[in-house]
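Practice problem: Helix-turn-helix transcriptional regulator
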Amino acid sequence: MTIFTAPQFTPCVNYLPEFINGFTYWELKEGETSIQANKENNHIIFVITGQLSITCDQFENILVHKEEMIFLPNNSNCSYKVLSASQMIVFTFDRFRNQCDKYTFQKLAEKTEEMSYTLRAVSIHELLKDYVLLLVRYLQKGINCPHLHEEKQQELFILLRACYTKQEILHFFYPLITHNIDFRQIVLEQYPKAKNVSELARLTGYNLSDFRNKFLVNFGVPAYQWMQKRKSCSIKFRLITENTDIATISDEFGFSSPAHFNKFCKKQFGVPPALLRKQLKAQYEK
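Answer key — structure tokens:
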């Protein structure tokens, strides 16, 4: 199990949660590491004590100190290393549970063109510190009712809006913010099945022209460019996490030949895949 593991609730015949949203408490030892494809869920990590180094797709070795939090979006490739013994709460959610939160984030999308994004940790506001410490007490006591988790999620988003400016919320949740959150969700669900933009348009139920226009509005980049970037991140993840031979990885990602795969890696990373794998593993094992 890793901090990206979905929460496990106390079984309840009277209340069945609609979404896989909830909180987990972790105590990690110095030196612990994990690499995981974060496919279905978003995560907010609240570091109470200690220090982590986190890599998420193209953002590498981001430090998260005690009393800081960081947001990791779904459909990303993530790894972490515990730099000093740490305690943390991890909030896992696949989607917003009410229309108020969804509307708030969709309104913020109007300002995304005004900023450039980089992944970074944010200080936990004093009000949120009290909230997080109370969660720790609940979870340590084994209070793991799914209804409580849903109520605490609603409270969390209220506190976030109260404690941080719109600009701060925009930067923190930037990968999640779009004009149409439902469209973003279906794209993320379907793109692993698509070999190209035309297939992704078909899988999401749009004709190609409408899809390209809608994608540009909601993701801020052309669909082809976005898919190439996602492919690059996934290739890096496969090279570092598995010992699968390079020819097999090339086939799985739809390259016509090892030479084509080699050319792609040189263009995206500056080196051929074998050397990239060696560099990535050396960096991760430091």
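Discussion: The first helix runs from residue 99 to 108. Students who identified this feature from the tokens alone can consider the problem solved.
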